[in-house]
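Illustration: OsmC family protein.
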Amino acid sequence: MTTNTVVASIGSVNYQVHLSDGAHTWLGDEPESAGGGNRGPEPTSLLLSSLGTCTAITLKMYAQRKEWPLDGVRVTLSLETGSQGTKISRDIDLEGALSAEQRERLLQIANACPLHKILTHPIEINTGLVAV
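Result:
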């Protein structure tokens, strides 16, 4: 089992969230139209960026192990929510002189990236308050 920890904290600046994983820091925010300062991606973009990053890295690693001519990967993601739930669309552009079989295998591998697995399996979120 892998454990990753991210700390998200907000102060006096409306909706600007400071994020840290212990080695890196970044910002999350809301657009100005929602009362934020647009100083960082909004939460949905952060979620999609995680899936896109995982997909691209997984495909690159797999192709390198196989010594396939994958020159680049571009992953375009969008998210729709509605009464039926949430739908994420992921379009993958593979650059390089890949055969049809290699391209098809990489599509299968994209669906095996760790974040894809997390998002498509049951998720349990345990929430508690820290004692003061």
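Reading the tokens back as a structure: The chain has two domains: 1-40, 43-120.
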